[in-house]
Amino acid sequence: MSYDFTGQVAIVTGSGGGLGRAHALAFAARGAMVVINDLGGTRDGGKNSDSTSLTAAEKVVKEITDLGGRAILNGGNVTSEFDMKAMVDQTMSAFGRIDILVNNAGILRDKTFSKMELVDFQAVMDVHLKGSVIATRAVLPVMQTQEYGRIVMTTSSSGLYGNFGQSNYGAAKLGLIGLTNTLKLELFKYGIRVNVLAPVAATRMTDDLMPPQMLELLTPESVSPAVLYLCGKDAPTGEIITAGAGTFARAQIMESEGLFLGLDATPEMIAESWNSLSDMTTAKPYQQGSDQGQKFITNAFENKV
């Protein structure tokens, strides 16, 4: 099937460069009208000393319009409810609808957990997790009225699997998966699909974290097809797609079948049975938390508790 976004409106946060820019250009190339949201700050979330700090975002808007597309600039901060409401109002005034939100804005303040100041932990949580919450809440009334919407959260391998020196970033990124797992249930009836992208790409967030040979392969453009897929009319919901250097994969949180040890189980029994109860050959994902609870209750009844 063909992915055509003609007539649709996409908001991409943090789209003045890197992944956000690649996503925005990809949507525009397939007919979407695009809102280029970018605060124009530094990688760690500080203020840009350049008085023309929005120049990068303005260039993205120009790239799109020079090719005959439609795009507008928004300099709102995702951590501000006022700014995100203003962004929605601006978008509705310019285009009349909102079909897609890609929560891409982010900052880095890397340091080992024991040496990290709480202000740096909070700042990263605020932009990645709370910022995605605020932006999503801002667009929801429009999408619910339309009974259509596509929302993409941006997670990371740091959240899925951990990464040295990124406890704040990893906590925020895994939190977005927890958020998605609930929103997929609450918003399905409105025709809104919520999914997660876990990208690996060469951007200003990673340019000093990887060797040049790797960065040459990890182009932002090679990730964007996953975003377009997650925003299509036949998009799934509640999925995690990992993407990097042209490879795409599905990630899931899974749980082993487990082993009933009784209501009087002891830690010694868990230790003795560890190989059996941790066997992942029968592992499966759950669609919601109650599915896991049902397993526990069923096992208890089947064992005549």
If you had to describe this structure to a student in words, what would you say it looks like?
By secondary structure, the protein is α/β, with parallel strands linked by helices. The chain has 2 domains: 9-251, 3-Layer(aba) Sandwich (Rossmann fold), CATH 3.40.50.720; 254-305. Helices cover 43% and strands 14% of the residues. It is built from 11 helices and 8 strands. Strands 3-2-1-4-5-6-7-8 form an 8-stranded mixed beta sheet, sandwiched between helices. The N and C termini lie far apart (52 Å). The mean pLDDT is 93.
The coarse overall form would be: globular
Structural class: alpha/beta
Q: Distance between termini?
A: 52 Å
Q: How many domains in all?
A: 2
Written as H for each helix and E for each strand, in order along the chain, the element string is EHEHEHEHEHHEHHEEHHH
Tell me the radius of gyration.
21 Å
Helix tally? 11
State the strand order across the main sheet: 3-2-1-4-5-6-7-8
Q: Could you outline the blueprint of secondary structure elements for this entry?
A:
Layout: E1 9-13, H1 18-29, E2 33-37, H2 55-66, E3 71-74, H3 81-95, E4 100-103, H4 118-146, E5 149-154, H5 157-161, H6 167-186, E6 192-199, H7 212-217, H8 224-230, E7 240-244, E8 247-251, H9 267-272, H10 274-277, H11 289-302
Helix pairs in contact: 1-2, 1-8, 3-4, 4-6
